[in-house]
């Protein structure tokens, strides 16, 4: 490199000297030619660089499109590990993105607050009714309040049992649901400025249009403090029945903790073969409310009667148990349940899981069923 640089320097020095000494046009022409050749060389290099980069970009794009197809028969281009990873990735199912229903836009006529009463089944049915009523009155529903004064004294809130966010979002195309009232209206309710009433039982939707909607428009907020059996089951428009079913089977989803517990229980039951789940509806509060005392001794009948009088909102006090039974308003006794299962030819090797509260009368009333089906389990 040194010898070349030396020659180059000498040559350049000679050119400069010649130009100076001669002072003629010959030296100037040589300088101009040298400059022109350098300019051409720079242009060639620049043009070549642009063409090379253009080719690289085009080849990269073509490689992304055609590379996988052209290289299918070239296993040597991929390691064994790479191919196995691609196979695993192909087997992973794609999780579809959650698609929210479109929000329903309507003129809001006011706000509906509801306090459910009864057991979980009664409250669940009531929530289905109240969502439907709110939808067809074009009002905003506040997340229902659950019963805390019942026989069980359960302090659970709605969000403790049900997935409240799923409840709100899954019904957004039908009705607007809020977790609480707007601040201004909430303050009015806190100081007692709210219209509260129990609707008439087994009413059709026209009752709510004609009687409840004018109250909501007048007071802005109406609180329905009793919700069990407040909307008739039969004779309603098909759209109302469909919405009730949608709320019950889709919108009211248990929390993940409760669902996980349920799966564990089912898994444990399946480990021991076939099983049947029974809800006997033979708890103390059920018998006291209905006045059905078949199979109870005199002390138990007195205890159930005292309980019935202890709850002022249970309107029916004097009850003829035999007449109730003949009219079909009494639950099957544990003894009768054993007869029904035998009549249905249910194998006595099946597990019978009692999904209910404490059976009134305890082991004495469950003895017949336990003898007929030895694999009897409860909570």
TrEMBL record:
Q: What is this protein called?
A: O-fucosyltransferase family protein
One matching Pfam family: O-FucT
Lineage of the species this protein comes from: Eukaryota, Viridiplantae, Streptophyta, Embryophyta, Tracheophyta
The record's region (Disordered) falls at 1-31
Organism equals: Gossypium raimondii (Peruvian cotton)
Q: Where in the cell is it found?
A: Membrane
Arranged from A to Z, the UniProt key words for this protein are: Carbohydrate metabolism, Fucose metabolism, Glycoprotein, Glycosyltransferase, Membrane, Signal-anchor, Transferase, Transmembrane, Transmembrane helix
Q: What does the entry give for GO biological process?
A: fucose metabolic process
Q: Which GO terms describe its molecular function?
A: glycosyltransferase activity
């Amino acid at each position: 490199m040194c010898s070349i640089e030396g020659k180059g320097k000498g040559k350049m020095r000679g050119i400069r000297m010649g130009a100076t000494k001669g002072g003629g046009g010959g030296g100037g022409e040589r300088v101009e030619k040298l400059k022109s050749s350098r300019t051409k060389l720079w242009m060639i290099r620049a043009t070549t660089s642009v063409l090379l980069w253009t080719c690289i970009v085009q080849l990269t794009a073509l490689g992304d499109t055609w590379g996988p197809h052209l290289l299918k028969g070239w296993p040597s281009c991929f390691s064994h590990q790479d191919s196995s990873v691609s196979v695993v990735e192909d087997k992973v199912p794609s999780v579809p993105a959650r698609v929210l229903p479109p929000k329903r836009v309507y003129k809001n006529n006011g706000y509906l607050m509801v306090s459910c009463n009864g057991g979980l089944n009664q409250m669940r049915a009531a929530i289905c009714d109240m969502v439907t009523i709110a939808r067809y009155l074009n009002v905003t529903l506040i997340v229902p309040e659950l019963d805390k004064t019942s026989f069980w004294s359960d302090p659970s809130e709605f969000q403790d049992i049900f997935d409240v966010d799923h409840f709100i979002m899954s019904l957004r195309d039908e009705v607007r649901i809020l977790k609480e009232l707007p601040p201004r209206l909430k303050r009015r309710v806190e100081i007692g400025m709210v219209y509260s009433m129990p609707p008439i039982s087994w009413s059709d939707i026209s009752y709510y249009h004609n009687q409840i909607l004018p109250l909501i428009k007048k007071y802005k907020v109406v609180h329905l403090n009793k919700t069990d059996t407040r909307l008739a089951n039969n004779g309603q428009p098909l759209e109302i029945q469909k919405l009730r079913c949608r709320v019950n089977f889709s919108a009211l989803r248990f929390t993940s903790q409760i669902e996980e517990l349920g799966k564990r229980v089912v898994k444990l039951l399946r480990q021991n073969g076939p099983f049947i789940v029974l809800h006997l509806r033979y708890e103390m509060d059920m018998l006291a409310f209905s006045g059905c005392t078949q199979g109870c001794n005199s002390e138990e009948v007195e205890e159930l009667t005292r309980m019935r009088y202890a709850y002022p909102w249970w309107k029916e006090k004097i009850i003829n148990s035999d007449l109730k039974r003949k009219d079909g308003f009494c639950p099957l006794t544990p003894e009768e349940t054993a007869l029904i299962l035998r009549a249905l030819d249910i194998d006595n090797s099946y597990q019978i899981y009692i999904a209910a509260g404490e059976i009134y009368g305890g082991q004495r009333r469950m003895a017949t069923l336990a003898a007929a089906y030895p694999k009897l389990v409860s909570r």
